[in-house]
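notes to self, project folder thing:

trying the whole complex as one job this time. last attempt i did each chain seperately and stitching them together was a nightmare. two parts in total, labels are on each line so i dont mix them up again. if this works i'll redo the older ones the same way
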Amino acid sequence: MFKRGQAQQFNWIFIAVVGIIILLFFLGFLVKYIDLQDSKKNAEIARSFSNSILSVKGTTQYKNFSVSQPFEVDYDCENLIINKDQKFRMSHSLLIDNFNTNKLVFWVEEYKKGFLIDRAVFISDADLAYYFEDSNYLVGLPPNVKIANSVQSADIIIGSSGVDYPNKKDIFIDPSAGIIKFVDEGETFYLGSDFGDFFVYAAAFSNAKIFNCTKEKLDGNFDRLKELYGYKIEQISLGQVGICNYNLIRNAVSVGDIDQMIELNNNLANLNCEVVF
Amino acid sequence: MKRGQLQIQESIFVVFIFFIILMLSMIVFYQFETRNINGIKDEHDENLFYHLISYVPSMPELQCSRIGIGDECIDLSKARAFGFMNDDYYKGIFGYKKIILEVSEDIVLYNWEPNTYSGERKISSPISVYDPNNNKFIVGVLEVYMYEE
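result (full assembly):
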């Protein structure tokens, strides 16, 4: 069949083909293996990050989180996503998504509308410096947030002056008019007057998309809790007699009139009646 | 067949067997690594499960409060109301779980059962429960069940 020269030629072709196949096979495996190792690393970061957040979620503490390698954090309004790979559920999170860091700070803030609506997790790159024109807002911040002393040294500026700072994230707030504006994103939110510190921090530590979805979720929680407190009022009013009247607070809760809810709840407390919240 | 042809066939056969062994060992190794990742995820799910026992009493839907200040107890009237709510929103938070508050009565706070499950795991913890109708604190037991698929 084969002559000697042909057989030798065939041997070389055979070795070359097999060699290339082995090489490609190893390369393919190497790529898959690297992906797998990345995925494993991301899963470990996600687990460790999630555990750290969960440990502060039920309280109003703060924490620092750091890993050796920088990682990317995104948020789809429901899940925190590590390096576009591993995700874990953490609703009511406020962060400027798509940042890449190895040091994060996070803490939990309560959002109240008369009664507690929920606790939101604030997450920030530890290297970002914040400048608040109104220093009163500094009181409510945890000590692990980096505060800039001047506009020049800040990455994010929160104020009411309306000055546009180029190359910086700029948040315009007007509590009396109920306006929060993400200047560089061109998004304005009308929240009603005296919206409280929570939304100022929410704007400072997030972007327009996350701010909006978190606000909508918290509004949804408010509606659920109104229903729940309505049921509670029904139950406690059955056992109360005399001066303890729950009709007014029942109406205030059902329409969500916060000022009146708080006033009527305080009145019930002053009368030694069972309070609603 | 000539000797040269036999040698070539032998080489092909050896390479073929080598490849099969190599592929099998790599598949096993890959699966082992994938299981490692799933193990990390399972560990995370388990942490979430254990976290629920401390998270549930601190939920605004259940936590006691007086003039807006939260307390470390479950409000019995809120627990009863929560049991009736049956809102899909909580399925996203708890998943396939059952949460029961045992006081003088058993209040099913939440239950979402998968169509099929192999078993269930349970953790429980004593908890202070405030009854606003009687203005009394009682001891209850909070039980969290995880359905295992």
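what i see at first glance: Chain B has a mean pLDDT of 90.
need to look closer tmrw
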